[in-house]
Fold this protein.
Amino acid sequence: MEIGPYFLLATLEGAVTAAVLALTAVGLSLVFGVMRVVNIAHGEFFMLGAVIAWWVAQAVGGHPALGFAAALVIAPLIVGGLAAAADMTILKRLDYDPERTIVATIGLLYVIQQVTLMTYGPEARPVEAPFGTRLAIPWIEHAEGGWRLYWPWGLSTTSYKLAVMAAAAAVLLGVWALMARTRIGLVMRATQMDRGMALAFGIPVERVYALVFGLGAGLAALAAVLIVPIRQAHYLMGADPLLLSFIVVIIGGLGSLPGTVVAAVLIGLSDGIISVFFSPTLAKIIATLLVALVLVFRPQGLFGTRAA
Amino acid sequence: MSDGRKVLLLHGGLLAGLFALHFVLPAYHHGNLARIMVLASYAVGYNVLFGYTGLLSLGHALFFAAGMYGMALPLHHLGLPAGWALLTGLGAGAGLAALLALLALRTTGVAFLIVTLMFAQAGHLTILYFGEVTRGDEGFVIDAAQRVLWGIDLSAPDARYLAALALFAASLLACLALVRAPFGKTLIAVRENEERVRMLGYDTHLHKWGAMVISGALSAAAGAAYGLLFGYAGATFGSVQYSILPLLWVLLGGAGTVIGPFIGTLFMFYLIDLSSDLTTAYMLVAGVALIALTLFAPQGLAGEVRRRLWRWLP
């Protein structure tokens, strides 16, 4: 293959990563923005979403689309419920003290991961995609006598991958509408701006926190259900989404939703492209160092306006 | 009895007890305790920064691994004698800590924690990236013939135990001396109220920098000794897990106590050891312990003892 089609293929793969990453990172960003809690267990909620999707798909049986559709609803609900319960039993009792909640969510990370290992086991298991027609993509080349269209070998995507991008965009629009256009979104933003004042105006801040924590975890789970037909469910799969979401949230500006989405697209695309042309380890080294330096020299993020 | 004498009696008694155990313990626990003493030295180093200065770092595996590889790489590839290799390991960890402190200390709170985590992650990935030299996750074994210090063969169980005890004693006494010195007392003041300490005319930034260098050097010494005593260096020791373990040990034993890191390491080592007989998911114990400690006993074991019984515990 020439460099052009190769680049297009890398971009398409990167766009799938970016779509899923945007959902996961917005969940993390929401939790940080409203609650000022750094949730280290976020990657495990992602993993839990994928694992539950496998359980549901197994239990439903029949046509793959049936199981997948059920998983799409059930997995985020269960994970969101679990997260809200964890918030009410653990984080609330720590008074949301930043450092102690981080230590507690590290504990939560190990609990979720190891319980999954004990019940689900160490195997990686696939979930069948509801649909997945292969779509070949044409490319133009300059041949004798002018330009002509041809179909390079290997340059293709599937209808499912395109659907993932569309679904992620739709959910992100939904989150934006929820935050900007509904009463519950107004309450969340009020809590984010001034917790004490919100409390004084009769907003049930503790219930809002539980809801936000559940919503953030639910978004991660949803992202995992979308990706699980492409990448298999495994009990250690939470580490990479966690690291990448952190990178995205910090580059995009802590707690800023539009910044997070822009950064997710940027990081997802460049991760796909860099990984194709260079070593993925080198790409990760550069990304982690970049995050550290951004936090040191520009704590409000590249797009944000407010310090951490 | 004066408080100073009680302190000396308690810590001297601990070291004497550990020396006496050398003669009575069965082989399995003898080996375990040697390992625990080296890891406890690491925890002592972590405690200087977390317990006494109040800076929560999630990146100490970087200093532990720097000490380990700073020792093992010249020893393995260049044939440097063990004594010099220990010094290069110590120097690598302390130098890295001095450099990173300059950057990381520009941030505070949650940002400090993420910055240290990211630097350690970059360090771990760098070890993996240079897999040809470091042998990555698989690691490499250090020949028994090279593990000889001043004519003492450190691969023998007896010499290994006593060397581990010597390292632990040095770390414990260094920590004790530090917290009784004006420098250490200033660190505690920084932990309690940095603004007020600065107002009183102290250079708090310089003090925090010093604490990070001391903490990094102690961690690196433990890492270098671990590699030399147990004859192995691997990338796992640079992973996030080895940044979280010292935090867990110190929290369990009691942050900001000299004896706490040892107690925490001892308990957690045997807890994980016992549970790994039952299940492969042994890190579950660590997770439950972290949550339970933050919820119910943020002071840790030695911290509770200090609160209820011995107010003089340093």
